[in-house]
């Protein structure tokens, strides 16, 4: 299971001018990463920040970026979980190219905007699950335009 951190801590702390660390699963696994994506979806939705979508970007069994749908709270139609997670991973890793990274997100296939963003970020593969981390589907490499 995941070690706990205070939820919804900003990736960038303007007071300390530093990125807050992402706490990692005690036992990294696809199931643990998908469980975190589903947890982010639930918690963000509970806070009325957007519809229930969560996403994590992973490399070498380590979460590099997380996101959840914040379209409502940010008044931003593009603030989908996948976009937020890609942006955070790029910022934390100090790179625009996420080749070698994979995405775990809930729901079916990401929307065309998010899948295209994953394509441009060069993410290797997208894994999805609707409601349980035991139901992971490998969606393969992201495609330009999605679907
Ligand atoms: Zn999307």
Break the fold down into its secondary structure elements and pairings.
Blueprint: E1 12-13, E2 18-19, H1 30-46, E3 54-59, E4 62-68, H2 71-74, H3 81-93, E5 102-106, H4 112-121, E6 125-129, E7 137-138
Parallel strand pairs: 5-6
Antiparallel strand pairs: 1-2, 3-4, 3-5, 6-7
The structure holds zinc ion (ZN).
Please, could you describe this protein's structure?
This protein is α+β, with helices and mostly antiparallel strands and 147 residues long. It has four helices and seven strands, in the order E-E-H-E-E-H-H-E-H-E-E. The protein has helices at residues 30-46, 71-74, 81-93, 112-121; strands at residues 12-13, 18-19, 54-59, 62-68, 102-106, 125-129, 137-138. The strands form two sheets. A five-stranded mixed β-sheet has the order 4-3-5-6-7. A two-stranded antiparallel ribbon has the order 1-2. Helix 4 (112-121) links the parallel strand 5 and strand 6 (125-129). The chain is globular. The termini are far apart.
